[in-house]
Design a protein that fits this description.
This protein is α/β, with parallel strands linked by helices. The protein folds into 3 domains: 3-103, 3-Layer(aba) Sandwich (Rossmann fold), CATH 3.40.50; 132-182; 186-308, ATP-grasp fold, B domain (D-amino Acid Aminotransferase, Chain A, domain 1, 2-Layer Sandwich), CATH 3.30.470. The protein has helices spanning 13-24, 61-70, 81-89, 91-96, 106-113, 115-126, 165-172, 226-238, 271-276, 280-288, and strands spanning 3-6, 31-36, 51-52, 73-77, 100-101, 146-150, 160-163, 178-182, 187-195, 201-213, 216-223, 243-251, 257-263, 306-308. The strands form 3 sheets. The protein has a 6-stranded antiparallel beta sheet. It has a 5-stranded parallel beta sheet with strand order 3-2-1-4-5. Helix 3 packs antiparallel against helix 5 and helix 5 (106-113) crosses helix 6. The model has no long low-confidence stretch (mean pLDDT 91).
């Protein structure tokens, strides 16, 4: 009775529901187990199979795998950036025990989660579309307005925008390992993509971030831009990512687009792209069951829709 584990579920109820639907449509996986360190998280009250886990860094792969085998877990979807290095470092160990993980290898995770490495490696090939990482000592010699953020990890909780050079230097003192980038005005978008085990990107779905709260889109709108879709798809293929990724970018008034970063995991509002046709959960379950995906992104049908996220009461 193979089951799917989703880690760090917290209050990610849309992810829970999307995964439950993928399970119902699966011919191999039979049930879903959501997990989190917080036994009082919202998901614990939504799904009867909830598993309260220890912080992942406290578990050896052997301990984790033993518990997975006891619970008949054969596939894992990490949802938190802090878990990616753990799973990426132990992919072979999990695979040897017939447990499949929606996570890239360690080299790719390091590349995509370290923003300095990301820019330095990508600029040789994609310079016109990459937002540069600037040296602290050169701020006054380059642009007029700046962004400060943490060098490693994903998300925008510690992001500081539209600062002068002096303000940027002051704000950087609040961060562990700050980096500086020029502040570029434009309309922000996210791009959800899925790259299969063969290294082929099966599709990229673009969405405007129309309303953002705490770094997550509350209103997100699917749109089409074939040049950007293909550019991001090729970019992820050439840098050997596997699974779901969320790329952040900007489109300026003159039509120029710039890439800010790529987060190599499912995103907070990625369920909009799943609904639009990028069926990442189902595709992962098919691959985890041993099947090879026979899809071509040129034929991917994408629904142009708008997703609005809001609180909802349930009764039992």
């Amino acid at each position: 009775m193979p089951k799917l584990l989703i880690t760090s579920i917290a209050d990610k109820i849309p992810h829970l529901k999307a995964a439950e639907l993928a399970i119902r449509n699966s011919q191999y996986f039979t049930d879903l187990i959501p997990s989190d360190c917080d036994e009082n998280c919202i998901a614990a009250h939504i799904n009867k199979n909830f598993w309260k886990t220890q912080p992942i860094q406290n578990l050896s792969p052997t301990e984790f795998i033993k518990e997975c085998e006891r619970k008949e877990i054969r596939a894992i979807i990490p949802t938190r950036s802090g878990e990616l290095d753990y799973f990426a470092s132990n992919l072979d160990v999990f695979a040897a025990n017939n447990i499949h993980i929606l996570c890239s290898n360690k080299q790719a995770i390091h590349y995509f989660t370290n923003k300095t490495v990301f820019f330095e490696k990508a600029k040789q090939q994609f310079q016109p579309n990459m937002i540069p990482v600037l040296k602290r000592e050169s701020l006054n010699d380059s642009y007029s307005r700046f962004v400060v953020k943490e060098e490693c990890g994903c998300g925008s909780m510690d992001l500081k925008l539209d600062l002068s050079a002096e303000e940027a230097l002051i704000q950087s003192k609040e961060l562990l390992k700050p980096i500086f980038q020029p502040y570029i005005q434009g309309r922000e978008f996210s791009a959800d993509s899925y790259v299969d085990k063969k290294g082929t990107c099966l599709g990229t779905v673009l969405r405007w971030r129309n309303l953002v709260r705490n770094g997550e889109s509350q209103i997100t709108q699917i749109f089409r831009h074939k040049k950007i879709e293909e550019w991001i798809s090729r970019f992820l293929e050439e840098h050997h990512l596997y699974g779901h990724a969320v790329t952040q970018g900007l489109i300026q008034d003159n039509g120029t687009f710039s890439i800010i970063e790529t987060n190599p995991r499912i995103g907070g509002a990625s369920t909009a792209s799943i609904e639009a046709g990028l069926d990442s959960f189902s595709w992962f379950l098919l691959e985890a069951s041993g099947k090879t995906l026979q899809l071509d992104r040129r034929n991917l049908k994408i629904k142009e829709l708008t997703m609005t996220r809001y609180k909802k009461d349930t009764f039992s």
